[in-house]
Design brief:
Distance between the termini: 27 Å
Helix content: 25-40%
Bound molecules: pyridoxal-5'-phosphate
Number of helices: 9
Number of strands: 14
Radius of gyration: 21 Å
Length: 359
C-alpha cells in the first residue's frame, strides 16, 4: 500500500523526511560506526545529540533561561503523579476537568494532595471548555492544572485561564509544538511526545527553576523528583536515547519549516479545510462547541453507528487510516498533527464528500 495518511491520535505520523534521515543514519551515525541505539549515553557523540536537541527545542519554543527542559520517561501519565508530588507545599491543588486526561490527573493527584475541582465540562460530556476567567481558586492552592488540548473530546483552550497569581501547570501532550506559546505564562508544562513530536517513550517537561525543590517528603522516589533530572541534565540514568535523538531530528525539521509560527499557520489552514466542510455537511456532524474546537483532534459522527463503521472501513481502503473515534465519543476522529500534510486533510475531505454523496 505504501505510506498512508495516518489520522491516529497517537502514536501518530512523523515527518517522512525525519524517518528517512533516521533510516540513513541507522547503521552508522555520523561516522561513529554504530547506531544511536547502540551508543553510550555518557559518550561524546550522544552528549552532542541530547544537548543539541535541548538547544533546538529551547529556540523553537522560546524557553527563557530560568526554565529547565527535562527529557523524562513514563509518559504523560507519570506526570499525573510527579506534578503533585513535586509541586504541593500547602497540600491543595486546583484542577479544571475537561475530559479523561484531566480527570485521571486529578484522581492521581488525590493520592498526594487535596484536589479542588474548580471547573468542569462533564455536564455536557466534555464538549466545551469551561469559562476560566474568574475561577474560585482556593488561596492556598499550590497550582492550577489544566489539560490544554483534549485529545479524546477534541477541545482546546483558546485562552489560558486567569490563574489569579497561582502557578499554571498544563498537560500539552496533544498540542505540543503546534503553535507559538508564551512560556512565562506557565509554571510548568509537559507532554508525552508520541502525539505531535516524536516516538513514544519520551516526556518533555518544561519547568520554572524556582519550582524545582529538594525539600520533598521522603516518600517521593528519586526518579520522580524533577530535581534529580534537572541536576544531571536529563542524564541521571539511561534516558530513552534513540527516541530523544528522533525528537531532535523533528526539532530540526520544525526549524526548517519556519518554526512554530509556520506550524500554527499550517495547522489552522488544515483545521479550516476540515471544519468548513464539516459545517456544510448534512451527513457529518462535529461533536464539540465550534469555538472550543481543537486544531489537532477533530471528532465527528454521522449519528448512525453502522454508517460510521462503514466510513472508517472505506476510508482505510483509500489510505486514510486510524479514523475510528475513541470509545467514549464514538464515531470518528481525525487527528491532524504537525506531520499531517495539507494534502492528507484535503484527501480526507474529498473522501467525506464522496461518502456523503453516496449515503
Ligand atoms: C495521550 C495523552 C496522555 C497520556 O499519555 P501517556 O504518554 O500514554 O501516558 C496524557 N494527556 C494527554 C492530553 C494525552 O493526549
Amino acid at each position: 500500500m505504501g505510506r498512508v495518511y495516518n489520522f491516529s491520535a497517537g502514536p501518530a505520523m512523523l515527518p517522512e523526511e525525519v524517518l528517512r534521515q533516521a533510516a540513513d543514519e541507522m547503521l552508522d551515525y555520523h561516522g561513529s560506526g554504530m547506531s544511536v541505539m547502540e551508543m553510550s549515553h555518557r559518550g561524546k557523540v550522544y552528549d552532542k545529540i541530547i544537548k543539541e536537541a535541548e538547544q533546538d527545542f529551547r529556540e523553537l519554543v522560546g524557553v527563557p533561561d530560568n526554565y529547565r527542559v527535562l527529557f523524562l520517561q513514563g509518559g504523560g501519565s507519570t506526570q499525573f503523579a510527579m506534578v503533585p508530588m513535586n509541586l504541593t507545599k500547602n497540600g491543595t491543588a486546583a484542577y479544571v476537568i475537561t475530559g479523561n486526561w484531566a480527570k485521571k490527573a486529578a484522581e492521581e493527584a488525590e493520592r498526594y494532595t487535596k484536589v479542588v475541582r474548580v471547573a468542569s465540562s462533564a455536564d455536557k460530556n466534555y464538549t466545551y471548555i469551561p469559562d476560566c476567567s474568574d475561577l474560585d481558586i482556593p488561596e492556598e492552592a499550590d497550582y492550577l492544572y489544566i489539560c490544554e488540548n483534549n485529545t479524546i473530546y477534541g477541545t482546546e483552550y483558546k485562552t489560558l485561564p486567569n490563574t489569579k497569581g497561582h502557578v499554571l501547570v498544563a498537560d500539552v501532550s496533544s498540542n505540543f509544538l503546534s503553535r507559538p506559546i508564551d512560556v512565562t505564562k506557565y509554571g510548568m508544562f509537559f507532554g508525552g511526545v508520541q502525539k505531535n513530536v516524536g516516538p513514544a517513550g519520551v516526556t518533555i517537561a518544561v519547568i520554572r527553576e524556582d519550582l524545582i525543590r529538594d525539600d520533598l517528603p521522603a516518600y517521593v522516589p528519586t526518579m520522580l523528583r524533577y530535581k534529580t533530572h534537572a541536576d544531571k541534565d536529563s542524564l541521571y540514568n539511561t534516558p530513552p536515547c534513540y527516541n530523544i535523538y528522533v525528537c531532535g531530528l523533528v526539532f530540526q525539521w520544525l526549524k526548517k519549516q519556519g518554526g512554530l509560527e509556520a506550524m500554527d499557520q499550517r495547522n489552522k489552514a488544515k483545521a479550516k479545510i476540515f471544519y468548513d466542510y464539516l459545517d456544510s455537511s448534512s451527513l457529518f456532524k462535529g461533536t464539540v462547541e465550534p469555538k472550543d474546537r481543537s486544531y489537532m483532534n477533530a471528532p465527528f459522527v454521522t449519528g448512525d453507528k453502522e454508517l460510521d463503521a462503514l466510513f472508517v472501513k472505506e476510508a482505510e481502503a483509500q489510505g486514510l487510516v486510524s479514523l475510528k473515534g475513541h470509545r467514549t465519543v464514538g464515531g470518528m476522529r481525525a487527528s491532524m498533527y504537525n506531520a499531517m500534510p495539507v494534502e492528507g486533510v484535503e484527501k480526507l475531505v474529498e473522501f467525506m464528500k464522496d461518502f456523503e454523496a453516496r449515503h
